[in-house]
Design brief:
Helices cover 43% and strands 15% of the residues. By secondary structure, the chain is of the alpha/beta class. The strands form 2 sheets. It has a 6-stranded parallel β-sheet with strand order 2-1-3-4-5-11, with helices on one face.
């Protein structure tokens, strides 16, 4: 029995000419549709896309770059050490949302990690080389060099988290996606107050990040006269939460509630409370922030926490960046988005 001929569809990669012929359009029209060009009527676009699907045509990346002047890649820049990225489920959820949405736009994710100040030069050189069409940057710190690097090389960027304090000279007129950190924190503390708790402590995140500062503000919105010793700073890690909890118990052994600025720190606090023989929630009620399923649903007792849609925020960042790349907004002309939060009731408070 003879094998497949050289002209067999199984052996020949479909060409743009074949797509055009099947769709009944010119090669130029097929090229504009496949490579994202404008000016093609909708019925023809549908014909070409149907032909692409039927033939299994895969666009040539180099050719598409010449037509669109894009690389089809987006940098995701995270200013955190590697151990944080791969141990904190917040980052995996956000990256998952970004990756899934980039797939919709047939774009690649390029992950750039900033371990320390020495990495800023490497990131700057990469962005200056024009390897990516735009960037998504998150987990910024107050002294971060990333915003100035991004401005210098005019890289279209959407930020995850508000990059600066409200009204501060350092705040950037750039589009960002954030959750209602302040409102969510206030809701958590009001819940603890509603339970009759009167000595409510707060384990804050690092004060060089706006999310931590906003959550402190939410705590103080409800308890403006609280003892400063009822606030301890952590670092958004389990161990940071444990250290802060130990500090709080040293100052206020009679505390009866804790609001932690993220679920990891809440789990560290819970560990210390159990080691000290403090029953949760009977003696100390505990609320976290994030609603990480891998944490909040597995602690004992399960953690009451403030939910933010982390994966959805990553998807939204991509959509905003693509709008900007398509010329639908430049700089501060793209409105930033604050997504809602929701208190999720479980057994810890």
């Amino acid at each position: 029995m003879p094998g497949p001929t050289p002209d067999s569809p199984r052996d020949v990669r479909p060409t743009l000419e074949a797509v055009a012929a099947l769709a009944g359009v010119s090669r130029a029209t097929a090229s504009r549709v496949v490579n994202g060009g404008a000016g093609v009527r909708k019925p023809l676009v549908e014909q070409v896309r149907k032909a692409v699907d039927e033939l299994g045509y895969v666009p040539n990346h180099a050719a598409r770059t010449l037509v669109t002047r894009r690389n089809g890649a987006v940098a995701v820049i995270i200013d955190e050490p590697e151990f944080r990225i791969f141990s904190d489920p917040f980052f995996s959820q956000q990256i998952r949302g970004i990756s899934r949405e980039l797939n919709v736009y047939d774009a690649q994710l390029v992950l750039l990690l900033v371990e320390g100040s020495g990495d800023f030069g490497r990131v700057a050189r990469y962005l200056a080389g024009g390897h990516v069409d735009g960037a998504l940057a998150f987990s910024l710190h107050m002294d971060d060099e990333l915003p100035s690097i991004i401005r210098r090389f005019r890289v279209p960027t959407v930020y995850g988290g508000r990059p600066g304090r409200p009204g501060a000279a350092s705040e950037l007129a750039v589009p960002y996606v954030d959750c209602d950190n302040r409102g969510g924190a206030a809701e958590a503390v009001r819940h603890l107050v509603s339970l009759g708790r009167r000595r409510i402590a707060h384990i804050a995140g690092p004060r060089d990040q706006t999310s931590a500062l906003d959550r402190i503000d939410g705590y103080r919105d409800v308890l403006p006269e609280s003892d400063p010793a009822l606030l301890a700073e952590g670092d958004f890690t389990v161990e940071g939460g444990a250290r802060a909890m130990t500090q709080l118990l040293g100052h206020h052994p009679d505390l009866d509630a804790v609001f932690a600025a993220n679920d990891l720190m809440a789990s560290g606090a819970l560990r210390v409370l159990r080691e000290r023989g403090r029953r949760v929630p009977e003696e100390v009620a505990l609320v976290g922030f994030d609603d990480m399923a891998s944490i909040a649903g597995t602690t004992e007792p399960p953690l009451t926490t403030v939910r933010q849609d982390i994966e959805g925020m990553g998807r939204l960042m991509v959509r905003m960046l693509m709008r900007r790349l398509n010329g639908e907004g430049e700089g501060d002309e793209l409105e930033s988005v604050i997504t809602p939060t929701q208190l999720v009731h479980r057994a810890s408070a």
